[in-house]
């Protein structure tokens, strides 16, 4: 039998926890990593509906990008929905593991996958933090394209129905694209200094949007949920490792959308 610890160790060979930001609670979240694992559910977020999905497919492990326990728990009052979810996870004997900023920073990880979905070439990091920890990617589109047309490409690439654009001129041509998954608005100056024609990131704040306009850097905000691209990518990695190692393990991408926002 393959243990959760074997899967975790192999993943951390790929994306070491040393790459995670100091205050980022990546790694083991809940459960016993020594338990046998045959089925892994890969998800962006750990929400009650995801736990129900894990129960339905008889998963032994949930592998997420966003930590289930992002903030410290001060009590276990089960009237609180998040606490009730933790209790259900433990009742189901599920192992929960999260790879957050280590997956964001590693080569061939989250931001490379986001760049790949856009068809960018000559992709390199644009925030170099040293020792293999590189946040964000910048690369080239095949040709120059009007910003408004590129916005439609972004919507199609990430399967979003709507997004926000910070730009004075939608007719301008863009080719060099910087992308940073998640909440990366503070990195817009890094993207500009790297020579980006346009920057893609999520959760742009109102006042930061004004600063972006003043800097004359077009920014596309397709939301945080585009990071769900990791579900298929991580499941593929685990299944490839299982084949190579002879593990009787199958990883399955979650079919649920955990995006809290609905575009009307």
Automatic annotation (TrEMBL):
It comes from the Bacteria. Keywords: Metal-binding. A divalent metal cation binds at residues 65-66, 104, 224, 227. Pfam families: DUF34_NIF3 (PF01784). InterPro entries: DUF34/NIF3, DUF34/NIF3_sf. GO terms for cellular component: cytoplasm. Gene3D superfamilies: NIF3 (NGG1p interacting factor 3)-like (3.40.1390.30). GO terms for molecular function: metal ion binding. SUPFAM superfamilies: NIF3 (NGG1p interacting factor 3)-like. Belongs to the GTP cyclohydrolase I type 2/NIF3 family. Homohexamer. This is GTP cyclohydrolase 1 type 2 homolog.
């Amino acid at each position: 039998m393959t243990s959760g610890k074997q899967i975790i160790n192999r993943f951390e060979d790929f994306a070491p926890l040393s790459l995670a930001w100091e205050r980022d609670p990546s790694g083991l979240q809940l459960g016993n990593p020594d338990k046998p694992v045959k089925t892994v559910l890969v998800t962006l977020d750990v929400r009650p509906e995801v736990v129900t999905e894990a129960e339905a497919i008889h998963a032994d492990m949930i592998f997420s990008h966003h930590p289930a326990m992002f903030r410290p728990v001060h009590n276990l009052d089960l009237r609180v929905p998040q606490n009730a979810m933790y209790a259900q996870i433990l009742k189901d004997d599920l192992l929960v593991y999260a790879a957050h900023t280590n997956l964001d920073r590693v080569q061939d990880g989250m931001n490379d996958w986001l760049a790949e979905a856009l068809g960018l070439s000559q992709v390199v990091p644009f925030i170099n933090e040293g020792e293999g920890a590189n946040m964000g990617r910048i690369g080239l589109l095949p040709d120059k394209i009007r910003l408004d047309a590129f916005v439609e490409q972004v919507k199609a690439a990430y399967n979003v129905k709507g997004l926000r654009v910070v730009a004075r001129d939608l007719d301008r041509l863009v080719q060099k694209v910087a992308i940073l998954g998640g909440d990366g608005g503070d990195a817009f100056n890094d993207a500009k200094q790297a020579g980006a024609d346009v920057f893609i990131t999520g959760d742009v704040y109102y006042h930061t949007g004004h600063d972006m306009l003043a800097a004359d850097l077009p920014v596309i905000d397709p939301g945080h949920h585009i990071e769900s691209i990791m579900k298929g990518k991580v499941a593929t990695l685990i299944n490839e490792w299982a084949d190579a190692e002879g593990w009787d393990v199958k990883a399955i991408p979650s079919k649920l959308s955990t995006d809290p926002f609905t575009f009307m």
